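In response to reviewer comment 3 from the previous cycle, which asked for concrete evidence that the modeling workflow produces usable outputs, we include below a single protein chain processed end to end. The sequence was submitted unchanged, and the resulting structure tokens are shown without manual editing.
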Amino acid sequence: MRPKRIHREDLRRRLRNLHIIDFVKDMIFINLGMLVYSLGWAVFMLPNRIVTGGGAGAAAILQYATGFPMQYTLLIVNSVLLLIAWWQLGSKFTLKTLYAVLSLTFYLDFCQRVVGMDPELARGILGANQEIGMSCILGAILNGIGIGMVFMSGGCTGGWDIIASIVNKYKNVSIGRVLLYLDLVVIGGSYFLFHSWQTVVYGYITLVVYTFAVDVMINSSKQDIQFTIYTKEYDDIIEVIREKTGHTATLMYGEGGYTHEAMKVVITIVHKNEQVDILRLVRDADPDAFVTFHRVEGAFGKGFNVIKA
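The workflow returned the following structure tokens.
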């Protein structure tokens, strides 16, 4: 006999309480991510005048040229961009990004002050014969890990990410491609400040290592995810997926190979950054559900990419 289904209102109430806990966890994770990211800049990259892409790279170049702290440049620019993001991308994305921007401002200032107290901190970590190449790689790895932690929590650090998200909303251009074009311009432009191709090359190396580290953290953001969910609470799970993500799902009829018990299987495809949300929704609606997911190399149609073949 099928167990009694959870009443919809009880389910929503339970979900709200659990989402508060998840939101707090996300804020803590964003905080840690911004600390790691700031350490990469303060300890390894800024002391060696290393450039990279993104809004942070542009702000760092301005600091090298004028001495104006990059964290305040980022705060000023992001204050404007966040107003646009609130209008174009919604409040949830904007609030998490605002929190990340404020955390980044604090930690960049704090970490630079700590490094200023001990200018030989990087030398103490890398040894007396430290090379700029090693600082470049270590700084990029810390940057990538920090940003990956923020992305996994549903936020971003503002800057180019906001611009790319808005462009992606209205044009069939991937966020990754927009960011790549902007990064290439910023790093290439650093030549006019330093008049050194070596600096430009190190900047591109930093960008490659940073991008790889982010991808490792979030399991390749370029792909969508297909979930296959075996559950008796399929109606509740489909409803919460639709309410919280805007995606729908397909029901398939199945039968247990051992018990021969009839069941329905929920299949849904979501964006990569919604993977954690879906797992949490399924966990909250049916802790006994059996879930598998895999990467989808391409998803086209409503809510995903436009077919232009």
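The radius of gyration is 22 Å. We consider this sufficient to address the reviewer's concern, and the full set will be provided in the supplementary archive.
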